[in-house]
């Protein structure tokens, strides 16, 4: 998709400028003509302004950007700022060139008579179905201001949760990467020089030393092959995860990993309950809300459970029927949802469940960070122990014999 800047004359005879995304200039012109505009100027936008970094991975639109858009739009509308002016202000204030272009296109669409939800829907890679349907429900009910405020609150909570989890996982990921890199360098370039001395001594070597000699010799001669195989493995895993079966297997594995499985299970509970409560608050019907949540929860195992729940609800059964058959759903969640259905306070119960399990996620993250340090110390101790027993002890025996 390319971005085209345009200047048009509206059906009322007013001049209007903006930007639109389309595969070609012809498609952009056709899209503008369909809105009743007379195209005066249409040109492809440059990649970026002077001094502006235009690398795609640096200009990508993040979850934080969407949170800021939601909150800013909510504040401006509550302050009685006209919708089009509010969107244009957001476009001017954002530092992300890609988001600026998107918001300019949204402003042009709304100014041309389109609904805000329809304008957002033109950018499915930026705005999720959850976001769009919440906006649409607010427009339908005439409570766009309230829905935007509620949506901004929930998105901020979800963003905080995601940031917290990423922050907790960065440390162990860095430690594992550092250990792997150091181990690779040691086995490829340092250990072979030490073991060469032992091989030339012609003294009996323990089994650990002989294994280390074989492994380090392979790394020393074929370290390039190890890197190639590792790269191929990573690529194959990424391709496999992108397939439906591979993604399901990966998501199932995540839920079964000790410690981390329990953490991710709680994360999905919070995301499910919070998203469903938000959609119900916005006036979306239960089945429609479940269909949207299925694409938001972020795990194929949970997605299947949600679709099974939709089937059960359509057949007149309880929302907890499918969840009750799964071992990945906490019993407390099922009991609370059942109470919410019986009392007609499902939304309130969903919010309470989300708050409860969000606190449990906080505790699990704190415990995880605490456990990481002793685990790292144990791994380092094992590594040092193996090196001592395999290299230093034979060297000490050799020097003693001399």
From TrEMBL:
Residues annotated as domain Type II secretion system protein GspF: 70-192, 272-394
GO cellular component: plasma membrane
Source species: Candidatus Uhrbacteria bacterium RIFCSPHIGHO2_12_FULL_60_25
Membrane-topology descriptor: Multi-pass membrane protein
Keyword Glycosyltransferase: no
Gene3D superfamilies assigned to the protein according to its UniProt record, in alphabetical order: Type II secretion system (T2SS), domain F
Top-level taxon in the UniProt lineage: Bacteria
Protein name per Swiss-Prot or TrEMBL: Type II secretion system protein GspF domain-containing protein
Localization per Swiss-Prot or TrEMBL: Cell inner membrane
């Amino acid at each position: 998709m390319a971005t085209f800047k345009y200047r048009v004359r509206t059906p009322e005879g007013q001049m209007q400028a903006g930007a639109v995304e389309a595969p070609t200039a012809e498609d952009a012109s056709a899209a503008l003509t369909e809105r009743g505009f007379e195209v005066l100027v249409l040109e492809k936008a440059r990649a970026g302004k002077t001094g502006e970094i235009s690398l795609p991975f640096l200009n990508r639109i993040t979850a934080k950007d969407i949170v800021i858009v939601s909150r800013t739009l909510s504040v401006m509308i509550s302050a009685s700022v006209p919708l089009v002016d509010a969107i244009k202000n957001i476009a001017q204030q954002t530092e992300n060139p890609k988001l600026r272009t998107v918001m300019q296109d949204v402003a042009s669409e709304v100014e041309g008579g389109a609904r805000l939800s329809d304008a957002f829907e033109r950018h499915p890679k930026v705005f999720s179905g959850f976001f769009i349907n919440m906006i649409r429900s607010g427009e339908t009910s005439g409570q766009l201001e309230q829905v935007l405020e509620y949506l901004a609150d929930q998105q901020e909570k979800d963003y905080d949760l995601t940031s917290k989890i990423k922050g907790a996982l960065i440390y162990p990921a860095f430690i594992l990467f550092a250990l792997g890199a150091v181990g690779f360098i040691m086995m490829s370039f340092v250990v072979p020089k030490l073991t060469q001395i032992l091989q030339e001594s012609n003294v009996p070597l323990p089994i650990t030393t002989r294994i280390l000699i074989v492994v380090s010799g392979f790394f020393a001669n074929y370290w390039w092959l190890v890197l190639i195989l590792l790269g191929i493995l990573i690529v194959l895993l990424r391709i496999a995860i992108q397939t439906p079966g591979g993604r399901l297997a990966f998501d199932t594995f995540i839920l079964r990993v000790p410690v981390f499985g329990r953490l991710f299970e709680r994360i999905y509970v919070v995301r499910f309950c919070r998203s469903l409560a938000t959609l119900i608050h916005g006036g979306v019907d239960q089945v429609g809300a479940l269909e949207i949540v299925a694409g938001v929860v972020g795990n194929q195992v949970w997605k299947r459970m949600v679709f099974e729940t939709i089937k059960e609800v359509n057949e007149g059964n309880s929302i907890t029927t499918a969840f009750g058959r799964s071992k990945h759903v906490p019993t407390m969640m099922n009991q609370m949802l059942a109470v919410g259905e019986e009392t007609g306070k499902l939304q309130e119960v969903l919010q309470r469940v989300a708050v409860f399990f969000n606190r449990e996620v906080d505790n699990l993250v704190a415990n995880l960070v605490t456990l990481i340090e002793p685990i790292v110390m144990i791994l380092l101790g094992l590594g040092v122990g193996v090196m001592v027993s395999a290299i230093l002890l034979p060297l000490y025996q050799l020097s003693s014999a001399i």
